[in-house]
Amino acid sequence: MVNNSVLLMAVIQGIQEVNAVICRDANRSFIITCLTFDVLVVIGGVLLKSFLDRRLAWTYEGRLTFPLTLTFAISSGLVAWNPVKGEALLACLESEEYSRFIIMSHVAAIPRGLVLGGVVSAALYFLVLLILKFAKRR
What we know:
Layout: H1 4-12, H2 20-55, H3 60-81, H4 87-94, H5 109-137
Helix pairs in contact: 2-3, 2-4, 2-5, 3-5
């Protein structure tokens, strides 16, 4: 369990010194942020596919791949950019000693976005579509 007072004091002091506890907590919040981006973008992609299916726009392959491509690109961009990154995450990424606690810390932002954003959102997209397909059959 993370001692919240230690994390709060580190944030108040401007993260002058990082440690393993702060970096583990920053990693956990980074993963939660990535998954939140992925889930929100996948919901938008599934809604777009549903809209295109109701309008019978394009072919089936087009209705499947256009929202998937859009979902992949937006999710990858959001995770690579990470507009809500905190000082703790930045300090841990800059630290040579504690950067090992952050997932994919030694990788550039774009490949990190492709893996943690695009690939995960594509898998979630197909999983949600599969679940919805089975739910409609019942």
